[in-house]
Amino acid sequence: MEQHVLFENDFLFGNLFLELIPHPTNWVGEFLKYSSILCHILGGDKFFVFLLPFIYLCYNRILGIKLAIALLGSGIINGFAKYHFESVRPFGLSESILNSQANFIKESSYGFPSGHTQISILVWGILFLEFKNIYLRIFALFIILFTPFSRLYSGMHFPGDVIGGFLIGLISLALIEYLFLKFPNFFEINFPIEKKKQYFRTIILVIIVITLSSILLKSNGTIMSESSIDLIIACAGSISGGVIGFVFLDLFFPDKKNWNKVSKGNDFIKRAGIILGFILIFYFGMTFLGKVLEANETLFRYIKYSLLNFNLVAIAPILYSKWKTN
Q1: Which sequence spans correspond to the domains of the chain?
Q2: CA–CA separation, 237 vs 140, rounded Å?
C-alpha cells in the first residue's frame, strides 16, 4: 500500500528538519536519548494504567476523574485523527536517528497527530497546575517541554505531527480547565433514588451501545491502521467501564465514593494492593488469557479495558471499605 503524509511538504512532513537535528555521541547524546525514552514511557498507555488508579484511589478522587476525562477524551480524538488521516511516520531515516531510539522507542500506529505530544501538554499540564510542590512542577514542565522535541529527536514524528499534537493538547487543556472551573460538580449524579435501578440499566445500555460501536471500525489491512483502531477501542472500553462503575458506585454505594484524603502508611498499602491486584488480573491476566484463547482481538480488548476500569472505579473502593472495617 502506498505511503502518504498529511501534506506534501518536506519541512513539515518530511525528513529535512529531522536530519538537521544534531545527534551527538558523547554524554549529551546519551542524556537526550534516555530523556527521550523517559518521555516515551511517561506518555504511554501502560504508565497511565498505573498512574490514574493511584491518583483516583490514593490521592484525590476529583483529580483522578479530571485526568481520566482528559486522557480518554484525548485518546479518542487522537485515535480517530490517526485513523482518518492515515499519515505515516518518518521512514528512510539516517543511522544516527535510528540509534537514538535505542530499541526502546517503537510505535506502530499512524503519525498525525503526535499522541505523546498531545498527552504531555494535556495530562502533564493538568498535573503542573494541580501540584504546588516545586520539584514536581519542574519535572512536569520538563516533560511538557521536552516531549515534543524528543519525538522529533528520536524520529518518531514529523514536525507537522508534533505541531498538530501540541495544538490539540493545548486546546484540550484550556477546555477541561474551563469545564472544571466553571462547572466543578458537573459529573455528580442527582437521579431520584427510587428510580436508581431504572436509570442504571438505561445508562449501561446507552454507554455500551455508543462505545461498543468502536469495534466496527474497519482496518485497511496495515499494522498502522490496526494500531490506531486499537487505541480507539482501548479508550472506548475504558470509558464504558469507568462511566458504568462511576454511576454504579454513586447510585448504590454513595458512602464509598469519597477518596479525597491522601492515603498514608497502612492505608496506602491496602489501597495500592487492591489496585495492583486488579491491574494484574484484568490487564495482564486478561491479555494473557486472550492470547491463550485466541479470542477476537478487538472485542476482547474492549472487554478487557471495560472490566479493568469498572473494577478500579467501583469495586476497589467497596473492597477497601470492607477491608478497612474488618
Answers
A1: 7-187, 192-326
A2: 28
Which pLDDT band, with edges at 50, 70 and 90, does 96 fall under? confident
Per-residue pLDDT tens digits for 73-85: 888 999 999 988 8
Tell me the CA distances in angstroms from 122 to 271, 307, 322, one per residue in order.
27, 26, 35
3-state secondary structure of 47: helix
pLDDT, one tens digit per residue, over 182-203 is 988 777 777 666 677 787 888 8
pTM of the predicted model as reported, rounded to 2 decimal places: 0.88
Amino acid at residue number 263: S
> Which CATH fold topology does 7-187 show?
Vanadium-containing Chloroperoxidase; domain 1 (1.20.144)
Cα–Cα distance, 234 to 292 (Å, whole number): 20
Q: DSSP characters for 63-105?
A: HHHHHHHHHHHHHHHHHHHHHHH-PPPP-S--HHHHHHTTTT-
**Distance between first and last Cα of the chain:** 61
* One-letter identity of residue 239: I
Tell me the three cell numbers of residue 156: 518518531
